Amino acid sequence: MPEMERAPLLEVKGLCKRFGGVHAVDDFNAVVNRNHLVGIIGPNGAGKTTILNLLSGVYPGNSGQIVFQGQDVAGKRSHQIGRQGMTRTFQNIRLFGDMSVLDNVKIAYSWQAKYGMLQAMLGLRGVSQTEREVEGRALHWLERVGLAEHRADMAGSLPYGLQRRVELARALAGEPKLLLLDEPAAGLNPAEVQEFIALVSGLFSELDLSIILIEHRMEVVMRLCHWIYVQDFGRTIGQGTPEQIRRDPVVIKAYLGEEFE
Amino acid sequence: MEGTSTFSFVVQQMVNGISLGAVYALIAVGFALVFNVLKFSNFSHGGVIGISAYVGFLGALHLHLPLLPTLLLGTLAGGVVASVVEFLAFRSIRKKRGQLVYFFVTSVTMLMLLEQVLVIFFGASFFTYPQLIRTTSFTVGGVSISILYILMMVCAAVAFAVLAWALRYTKVGIAIRAASNDLTTTNLMGVNVDFIVLATFFVSGLLAGLSGVLLGMAYTLYPQIGQLVVKGFIASVLGGLGSLTGAAMGALALGIVEVFLITVMGAGLSPAVIFVLMVVFLLVRPQGFAGVSFKEKA
Amino acid sequence: MRKSLALFLVVAMLVPVMALTAGCSGGSKEILIGNIQDLTGPNKAFGVAMTNAAQMYIEKLNAAGGIGGKQLRMISYDTKSDVNEAINAYNRLIDQDKVLAVLGPPIANMGIALAPISVTKKVPIIGLFMDEKATTDAKTGQPFTYMFLAQNSAGTQARIMASYAINELKLKKFAVLYNQQNAYSVSLAEPFIAYVTAHGGTVVDKETFLTADKDYKTQLTKIKKAQPEAIYMPTYPQEIPLSLQQAYELGIKATILGDNSYIPFATASNTDPKAAEGVYFPYGVDPADAKLQQFATDYKAKWGIAAIAQSYSGWDAFGALADAIKRAYAANKKVTPDMVAAEMNKTKDYAGYQGALTISPDTHRPVGLPMVILQIKGGKPTTLTQYKEPTQ
Amino acid sequence: MSYFVTVGVFTAITIIGVLGTFILTGLTGLFSLGQAAFMGLGAYVSALLVVTFHVPFPLAVVLAVLFALGVGYFIGYTTLKIRQDFFALATFGFGEAVRAVMNESVKWTGGAMGFAGVPQLTTPWLAAAALIAAVWLVRNVRYSKFGRDCLAIRTDELAAEVMGINAFDHKLKVFLLGAGLSAFAGALSAFFTTYVEPAMFGWTQSAVWIIMVFFGGRDSLTGAIFGATTLSALPEVLRFASQWRVAIYCLIILLIINFRPAGLFGRWELSFKGLSRRRPPGAGAGKGRRKAVAEKGGADADA
């Protein structure tokens, strides 16, 4: 495969984060190749969300390297990382509730829109042209996730399942190379979960994209991911393909338990 | 010969600074208490200070109350007014999970409203408390100490001691402390959040009332007296919002710094210097003297 | 829903317009005098005193037939202690109400702000704004044509106090404590310092405070260390009890010199009576004067509040103005703002409560108007002597 | 100049100042208690330049605004990194500091006695033109990506950051815009009232501007302008008992925040067809709005 010959998209080495005395993430190492879908699983408090927060620059780690597209992004601020092509969703949906669905998605283009404050103030020609382009691109993503008809609704007024999709559209509109999904299926009903799985795998096959997925539902992870890391108390206790994970005795003991016996 | 040695001058200025700091501390701690639980800067605290100062004044003037009952009356009035303010102005914003801006605007508006209530009922000119303490000061080795400031410090010390005790050992106090960590968790613990918030405002109002009467006695009584709350605001931020001890420490520091600046360079430019100090301090130590820095969770 | 909102907006925007057009009135049957005062706000007491006194004067005048058969009417606007409001009110009085003259506020910075505007509006303002910048154009040194002061200026008051302290009390070492953010305070402190240093005295310490400050002990401690013989404390009413009390608490024994607002504020209920004992201050009228007693009784009967200094000087200001209007009318059979201004310049020995009021055409301020020096003895202001500004 | 015009000019100046607060506090959610201080800087600097240094009026206004921007950059750069409450405090301290400097430098500013004798150069026409220009500028910003970014940062700064928005940088720009508008308003006001004094620029003035924004609706430019107009011009004209007036305002604000937190106008914007081709994105949910977007989508497709 040609992808394998190139350097990995993301390489995490020895990432650590302590809160007070607690090691939330302890020596996390991972590799995400291009066009790969990687899952991170583990019980509550295993440090999964912390890993995403470290990757996306929400807070800095205590030590370790995060090499993304050949650059160490550890310690960079969120917006810098976002601009380099790593976007994310949040476990507890963080939409801009006071804004329309369309505007939520447009936000992803703010840093790319090529006009400054002065041009905006004077309402120069380029501004409205750029704005039209942005609107077109944002609409494209809304259509892709099936929300075009809701574009004018306030994001905060949508039902939960649709809010998840808006957040996904917003993250995709950042045109990421690496998309971080933090429990994207949480709170969805079984039918919505199926739709969601179909949506993600559809997007994944269409786009030049890698995904890191954190999820509680084994069903989702097992069906979508190529490679899985299992976290417990901040440490990686196992990794492998879904099949390997299913059989790993350590993993079964620590986490999967009776569910797979 | 009333000349003073450099030593007694310095001591006198220290006494002045600490006295001023004690005044600010009374304001700052009540201010910080509400911040602890609801995480917003409650300027209506100043309005409560103003109203209770006038209530105490009315009691002393018309009911001829002596010192302690006057203090008690003002303190209680503060608690009641603050509770009413919480109930009328803040409760529904909290229920709707309104953003911080709403709390802020409401609190500033409430300060203005309460001030205006005083203007409507008492006019804009000033009043003075009847003299509740006969002797006004005593002198130790050339250093004069005002009885009223002693009273303030005693009141502050007693109030803080009672507060510390209540927060540690009473059921409501423990709940308030829990709420200051996380209001929603408190709700999960089965404690009635509405009650806790009301209690927090009540306690903070008691402190406002106490400081109101003391300020009214020490100074003159005018509707804007509550604007001294900004000193409490500065002090509590310096001390680290979220910590009561920090607020008290910040207040003391502010009092001493103000006195130092006036001594060294006069009152005129001291706000400018205090501003620069404040910014430097916030940049170097954003968590304040004792505060815990808040970090948003993702 | 949206339509009704829009309608509401339109109505809301229209209300002011309609209120304006409805407000136009005024024939030539009466003489309109404007009155710009703080009727609310912290300095309300002064504004109300002037308004009440002027109202009493008008009633007396109207009962006697008015001026040239015309009744006088006063239109008062509240300035709410805000200079912009004062400017607004002045403009409105001229443009809309078409008043003949304006009774101005006893507030220094309002006078200063109105002075350059009066140059273009050309309607005289007679007031008690004590700062000399309100009557003299600092750029040209010439008086503002339409600004008149009907009591001693701040400079005069400060010089009277300074001169009395140096010449009568034989004091030499002074300290000054004043509110740096208050125009009244500043306009008294500066001439005092200038006079003292020019007449053989020294100012050993000059301390200031800000309006938000309520504790002056730090400044007073510095003053105490400088060992002055006297401290001049020209401050606003609510600051007087504070500075007196705090100086007393610090055990300061120096003589305290005050300003013309020390009655009644020096003897506030929460200050130790001993704190104000022995304080000297100048005052526009002599409280012991029998003439004043009658006015005070009438005033109290009519308004239910006691007359204060601004009641007397306000009466004088309005009286001088009414006299100028009378003279202008007698001479021309009609009266315009310019005539009033011209006649104001000729005010000579108007018999007011403050004494014989003569306006100097060179400064538009009173000349030779005496003040009374009072001292608080046994908790009461006691008249010591009449004192005039020393001729330099 | 008739009284009505005078009130109109004062109102126009207030609106210009409030526009800055609208962007800063209304849209971005930053409470600055130092906006009036920027107004003061604009007023004093322009007045000094014209009266003392004989600089031509237009140049003086530009220089005053640039000066305020310079100061604003310094203040914003140092204080916008810290938490929101700190920012409110820091701007409060800044306002007091500016007033202290104005009071202290008596030689230049006249101190507490104020700076009088500024020529009256702000004509009603100038005020009207300035108002229109300011509204137009702010409207353009509001309905550009900057307006969206403001809302995004106000709602969820972290999420905005993750989407590639440099929140600090954005806040700094918005803060400068607000400072510039305030200074501009200050310069106009100095040359209209002909008098400036430090007491005009206290923190309560800044708080009043915030109240005006919330009265009309913090998401609506029309609302902010309405709030400023109503709360500044109406009482001036009606002149009803002023101590009740303030109390009534306060009550209105409390009622609005409690029962209609989006302000009287919510998101509603006055728009003139033809004049404004761009419609407020996301303005007013509902069928009409959806239809409008659909129409517009069609137009885009044609183009």
Describe the structure.
The complex is a heterotetramer of chains A (261), B (298), C (392) and D (303). Chain A has 261 residues and is an alpha/beta fold. Helix content of chain A is 39%, strand content 23%. Chain A has two domains: 1-85 and 176-261, P-loop containing nucleotide triphosphate hydrolases (Rossmann fold), CATH 3.40.50.300; 96-175, no CATH class. In chain A, the strands form two sheets. In chain A, strands 6-7-8-3-9-10 form a six-stranded mixed sheet, sandwiched between helices. In chain A, strands 2-1-4-5 form a four-stranded antiparallel sheet, covered by helices on one side. The longest helix of chain A is centred in the middle third of the chain and has 20 residues, at 125-144. The radius of gyration of chain A is 19 Å and the shape is globular. Chain B is mainly α and 298 residues long. Chain B has a single domain (2-284), classed as ABC transporter involved in vitamin B12 uptake, BtuC. A two-stranded antiparallel sheet of chain B has the order 1-2. In chain B, helix 2 packs across helix 8 and helix 6 crosses helix 8 (193-218). Chain C is an alpha/beta fold. Chain C folds into two domains: 2-152 and 291-361, Rossmann fold; 154-283 and 372-387, Response regulator (Rossmann fold, 3-Layer(aba) Sandwich). Helix content of chain C is 44%, strand content 18%. In chain C, strand 1, helix 2 and strand 2 form a beta-alpha-beta unit. Chain C is globular and about 65 Å long. The model of chain C is unreliable at 13-27 (pLDDT under 50). Chain D has 303 residues and is an all-alpha fold. Chain D folds into two domains: 3-259, ABC transporter involved in vitamin B12 uptake, BtuC; 272-302. In chain D, 72% of the residues lie in helices and 1% in strands. Chain D is built from 13 helices and two strands. In chain D, strands 1-2 form a two-stranded antiparallel sheet. In chain D, helix 7 crosses helix 9 and helix 10 (203-216) crosses helix 11. Chains in contact: A-B, A-D, B-C, B-D, C-D. Chains B and D meet through helix 3, helix 4, helix 9 and helix 11 of B and helix 4, helix 10 and helix 12 of D.
